[in-house]
Amino acid sequence: MVQFSRLMRIDIEGAKAFTFNYRGDLKMSQANIPNVTPTISITLDDSVNLLLASTALEGLALANIINAEAERIQYVIGTLPGSEGLSPPATISNLLAIDSSVVRTLQEVMKKEILLQIKLDSIMNSLPITPLAMAE
After folding, report:
1. Is residue 89 within 8 Å of 10, Cβ to Cβ?
2. What's the alpha-carbon Rg for the chain, to the nearest Å?
3. What are 45-97's pLDDT values in tens digits?
């Protein structure tokens, strides 16, 4: 238990400031963490498959982002199938703004692709190497 005494001044905008003196005991509570011991049983093959699947799904998500950026450009210049484009047509400054935005987005996608390649390389390098049976 911690003993303390504190003189506190509180100023509230638009109200009269007041001061009070607080004396008391401070009881600190401890976090109540439950004892959780789940049993998870997966094989090495399962974990490798899960890692490869997550990498593939991340790659698919990045491909969708690239496609969305391409469609955004097509919409602005009026060549997106099923769309009439902007009305009135895009100006040069509109096109430059879209181009700049797409470049920034694609730079971020490329960074993520590099990280995915590193993740894939790490997964492949951590696999146990087993010799293939010689064909007879």
Report:
1. no
2. 30
3. 888 899 999 999 999 999 999 999 999 999 888 888 888 877 888 899 999 99
Statement: the pTM of the whole predicted model exceeds 0.70: no
Q: What is the helix (H) or strand (E) element at residue 102, kind and residue range?
A: helix 92-126
Residue carrying structure tokens 């699947």: 53
CA-nearest of 101, 105, 110, 107 to 76 is 101
Per the DSSP assignment, residues forming a β-bridge with 10 are 18
25 token code pair: 């005991």
Q: Using an 8 Å Cβ cutoff, are 28 and 3 in contact?
A: no
Dihedral of the alpha carbons of 84, 88, 91, 95, in degrees to the nearest 10: -30
Phi/psi for 44 (5° steps) reads -60, -40
What is the C-alpha to C-alpha distance for residues 94 and 74, in angstroms, rounded to an integer?
13
**pLDDT tens digits for range 29-41:** 666 777 777 777 8
Determine contact, residues 112/58, Cβ cutoff 8 Å: yes
**Contact in structure between 119 and 50 (CB atoms under 8 Å):** no
